[in-house]
Design a protein that fits this description.
One of its GO terms (cellular component) is plasma membrane. Pfam families: BPD_transp_2. It is a multi-pass membrane protein. It contains 14 helices and two strands. With about 350 residues, it is mainly alpha-helical. The protein has one domain: ABC transporter involved in vitamin B12 uptake, BtuC, CATH 1.10.3470. Strands 1-2 form a two-stranded antiparallel sheet. The longest helix is centred in the last third of the chain and has 33 residues. The chain is globular, with a radius of gyration of 20 Å.
Length: about 350
């Protein structure tokens, strides 16, 4: 199968310069925001404050990485925010039922549950051919309804101190380094290595042209299901960090699905798939978190965050469409001159 997949993977590799070009604006934006932040708050870049900021941003960056896998393959995952909420509530209930449960077991249960939700999303959207937008929207509503029915708006239980270590604790021997930053770095490196593998390149090729990928021997459905499983896994890990940092809440993940999509789009990932960089998607999440932090420092109401996200999505998609059409016109005009 590797011989048949190779042409698609190579073609995806040839699209790398275009992906890098599309992602350039997000790195420029991130640089500008970080510079402005330095002028607004001179002490922001003190090591402890900077790492605390990255710790707060870690769940969104991880969600953006998971969302990237789905979007670059041609889909959407609107259920990730609800997976975060369910993860926080379920973890609290687990410790309420089994107080002596080792916290790694609780983390493992959440990760497996997140993967199961992703698997269901993937199977429904591929085997039953239900559009991923509709599938994950339905899953989001199902999970939200289940949480409200179970908790009546007031979650029970508690999160053990060991469990909360990943979200708010420091690495032993390195009291300046949050565990959340370590988790983020490990996941970011894993995501980059995955996208540099043949499977990652084939995932991009599938989003670009699934029919051509299928003719090349790619198991398109299996690949897209895997993307949803990875997204569910990332959402479950984000739930562990959110629960550890903020505690129990029935609204822990509210709106995070739209923040993740905004981050990925801001990173230059095409809405139809087939183009984009996972590094740029994570940079988009960091840019979004930086922008929200900057707005808070400037005294801008947090109620405007949704408005800002809407503007970013429209502007990023419009910019991507314009740059993509220009790149397509250049080869055509060259052919006409010949």
């Amino acid at each position: 199968m590797s011989d048949t997949v190779a042409p698609e993977a190579r073609r995806a590799g040839l699209r790398l310069p275009a992906a890098l070009s599309a992602s350039t604006p997000v790195f420029v934006l991130l640089g500008v925001l970080l510079i402005v932040l330095a002028f607004v708050d001179i002490g922001f870049y003190e090591p402890d404050r900077l790492l605390a900021f990255i710790r707060r941003a870690a769940p969104l960056i991880i969600l953006a990485a998971g969302q990237y896998f789905v979007m670059v393959s041609g889909g959407f995952d609107l259920s990730v925010g609800s997976i975060v909420t369910v993860g926080v509530v379920v973890a609290a209930e687990l410790f309420n039922i089994v107080p002596d449960m080792p916290w790694p077991v609780a983390v493992l249960i959440l990760l497996v549950a997140g993967m199961v939700v992703g698997l269901l999303n993937g199977l429904v959207s591929t085997v039953l051919a239900v559009p991923s937008f509709i599938t994950t929207l339905g899953m989001m509503l199902i999970l939200q309804g289940a949480v409200f029915f179970w908790t009546q708006g007031a979650p029970r239980g508690y999160l053990s101190e060991g469990y909360r270590t990943l979200g708010r604790g420091m690495v032993p021997g390195l009291p300046w380094l949050p565990w959340a930053v370590v988790v983020l770095v490990v996941i970011a490196v894993a995501a980059v290595l995955f996208m540099r593998s043949d499977t990652g390149r084939t995932l991009v090729a599938t989003g670009d042209n699934d029919a051509a990928a299928a003719l090349s021997g790619v198991r398109v459905h299996r690949l897209r299901v895997s993307a949803f499983v990875l997204s569910g896994l990332a959402a479950a890990m984000a739930a562990v960090l959110v629960g550890g940092f903020t505690g129990i809440s029935a609204q822990a993940g509210n709106g995070m699905e739209f923040e993740a999509i905004t981050a990925v789009v801001l990173g230059g990932v095409a809405l139809g798939g087939g183009r984009g960089s996972v590094v740029a998607a994570m940079a988009g999440a960091l840019s979004l978190q930086t922008l929200f932090t900057l707005l808070t420092m400037l005294g801008v109401s947090g109620a405007l965050e949704s408005t800002v996200q809407g503007v970013i999505v429209i502007a990023a998609v419009a910019l991507g469409a314009v740059s993509w059409s220009r790149r397509r016109r250049v080869p055509n005009s060259t052919k006409e001159r010949r």
